[in-house]
Amino acid sequence: MNHFELQDGQLFCEGVPLAKIAEAVGSPVYVYSSATLERHYTVLRDALLAAGLKDPLIAFAVKANSNVAVLKTLANLGAGADVVSEGEIRRALAAGVAPERIVFSGVGKTEAEIAFALETGVAEINVESEPELRLIDQVGQRLGKRATVAIRVNPDVEAGGHAKISTGKAENKFGVSFAEAERLYANASNMAGLKPVGVACHIGSQITDLGPMEAAFRKMRGLVERLHAEGLHIERLDLGGGLGVPYFNQPEPPGPEEYARMVGRVTEGLGVQLAFEPGRVIAANAGVLVARVQHIHVRPEGRRFVVLDAAMNDLVRPAMYDAYHDIRPLNPRPGEPVVYDVVGPVCETGDTFTRDRALSPMEAGDLIAFMSAGAYGAAMASEYNSRPLVPEVLVRGDQWAVVRPRPTYAEMLERERPAPWL
Ligand code: LLP
Question: From the CA of 153, how far away is ligand 1's center (Å)?
């Protein structure tokens, strides 16, 4: 459920007509619903508690939506943060996330980032390889600290989803094998700069079948039990993120309740804290990208192009993953649906949001919303074609606030410097 609904023929976000925001801020613009973010977080938390989990750590994957106001909305409910860079640690801290609720993942953490994480006192650094384990140990020793680490395992399961976002197969770059994990965990226990506290996995994103997840989690349980049996201290099992969301044209993926029940079943009696790194399932359906129709361009052979003022630099998912986003007019016009190709103004054919989509009739000047754009939308936006970075707005009830303004052209150019020889 989300809070983007038609009221009197107008698309609203909670109590605010989206058109009102677009008029005031201009388009394109991302708009997020606080109530939806809060609902998705609490539904997941309550489902995990109902499944018998004690004190689960729900670390929102900052990469999905890194806006500090969004992070703060979730942090106020007790959410932690799953981060993959120093920049994301800084964002989580700026949003008031306690360091003990921050989990630091990623295959290529730099020495400086590791040092920053240790100074910050993050809950856990997820180690992705043996060289990284050694590096963290060195940094820990240099700083006179023992880094709390979890070993990220690659459970070697096929989780489906798009090839570019599947992470759990042995051929992917993430994590180590189970045998390696056991060896590294034991080694880490004897390294002066490390304190191993757990094991972690994450098998992919937009997963719509719980089968592969369950298979991976069962293997992870086995690993925890083996480490216990070896007399090693282990207190946390991090099961990553990855739960899919409905993008409108797909079969309904399993919901948080079903996921939580499965996790509860698989981990029953294990006696470790469970951690989760959900991104999409919390943020995707809590945000939309609003854009304006520039032209309707009809080609002689009959193809109808809706040319928007939003482009692949603002929402790259369709160009990058062939992702489907529902497109809804802010003020739907009456009449039979018309088949359109919806494109942006960027000079490449990849700047196509959809082809052959039946939509209600459109005219130049109309406003539309790309639905389910709250995850991996603004977070992946760029200034390609020197288009100013897309702004973001947060709605709460009948209030709304610009939480990242659109930069001016002067601000865009100010970031650059002349070379002395030019
Ligand atoms: N934890 C780790 C270690 C991850 O790599 C990811 C996502 C997550 C958690 C959060 O996964 P989620 O719950 O959001 O599925 N840009 C792509 C998605 C990339 C996902 C990368 N890793 C997209 O737009 O579909």
Answer: 16
The Cα 90–Cα 72 span in angstroms is 13
User: Would you say the CB of residue 88 lies under 6 angstroms from ligand 1?
Assistant: no
Task: Kindly list the catalytic residues.
Answer: 347
Q: How far is CA 404 from CA 25, 29, 93, 121, 376, in A?
A: 11, 10, 17, 28, 16
Instruction: State both tokens at 384.
Output: 């390609």
Q: Is 259 in the pocket of ligand 1 (CB under 6 A)?
A: no
Atom number in ligand 1 closest to CA 205: 15
Ligand 1 contact via 278 beta carbon (within 6 Å)? yes
Q: Which token pair is 346?
A: 């960027």
Nearest protein Cα to ligand 1, atom 16:
376
Query: Could you tell me the distance, in angstroms and rounded to a whole number, from the CA of residue 179 to the centre of ligand 1?
Result: 25
pLDDT in tens, the chain (422 residues): 579 999 999 999 999 999 999 999 999 999 999 999 999 999 999 999 999 999 999 999 999 999 999 999 999 999 999 999 999 999 999 999 999 999 999 989 999 999 999 999 999 999 999 999 999 999 999 999 999 999 999 998 877 666 666 666 667 778 899 999 999 999 999 999 999 999 999 999 999 999 999 999 999 999 999 999 999 999 999 999 999 999 986 778 999 999 999 999 999 999 999 999 999 999 999 999 999 999 999 999 999 999 999 999 999 999 999 999 999 999 999 999 999 999 999 999 999 999 999 999 999 999 999 999 999 999 999 999 999 999 999 999 999 999 999 999 999 999 999 999 99
pTM passes above 0.90: yes
What gap in Å lies between CA 203 and CA 46, rounded to an integer? Answer: 23
CA of 242 to the centre of ligand 1 (A): 6
Which residues fall within 8 angstroms of residue 196, CB to CB, at 6 or more apart? 148, 149, 150, 151, 185, 188, 189, 232, 233, 234
CA of 359 to the centre of ligand 1 (A): 30
Atom of ligand 1 nearest to the CA of 284: 14
Number of H helices, E strands in the chain: 12, 20
